[in-house]
Here is the input.
Amino acid sequence: MKITEIEAKGILNPVKQPDDWFGLKYNMNLYRGCQHHCIYCDSRSECYQVDHFDSEILVKMNAPDLLADLLPRKRIKGTIGTGSMNDPYMPIEKQYNLTGRALAVIAENQFPVHVLTKSDLVLKDTDTLSEIARTYAAVSFTVTTADDELGRKVEPGAPLVSRRFAAMRALANTGIHTGVLLMPLLPFLEDQPENILTIVKKTAANGGRYIIPAFGVTLRDRQRDYYYAQLDKHFPGLKEKYIRRFGNRYHAEAIQAKQLYALLEEACFDHHISLKMPTFAPVQATAQPAGQMRMF
Here is the structure.
């Protein structure tokens, strides 16, 4: 992939409140484009205006400096999320360490953070995340399938699911909040009861405290075109099933989604896993953040 270093004008964007899913107040993307090449990624959609999502990575070289200047001036202390438009721990992070440097700034300013990732590379920043956890730190791992072989096909550039669960265990052992983003759940590929139950069991076995589900996948413009091309490549005949069932709908819901959710709910109850994550309640920047977390 082409790597282009750029100077960003801004680094934090406000998140529409309340954010009942991820508990975010601010969103931060340190890179543009992604090396994980997940076949379903919504960030390919035209509305995000990322024209070379799979062929070029833009590296926001000044991002940590922008953050260091901005955070002391923020009036509201709220959770900073990273991982919405790309993965903050894709392989290029080994070279540039933007996420690691940004987390150090967040720790210095005692802001809470929620990292969304598919990578065990997050473990390199365990010490910094542990420091942030004095305020609030969560790391959520996207897991759409419990099967490494299927994972290789739908998330070809991302670390194996088994490595993500191992990283979850390591983070949980330090006391950092961690769990699973069970999203998207791809129709005809991942929406089987055994997949749901295995993910729940592995989450519990590796110290995950929550699972946030979304049963289905978005399908729009460039995202749909790319996804269908990959289905033709890896799962011949499956694209036609999508076209027959979903047509031009924006959202392709998992097959028997209601029944699957009921199954998930029961399994999570049995394994003491929440379907909501603990979040940090935003406070005035002059207030002490300790004790501001609300638990679901």
Notes: The chain is about 35% helix and 20% strand. Residues 7-273 form a domain with the TIM Barrel fold (CATH 3.20.20.70).
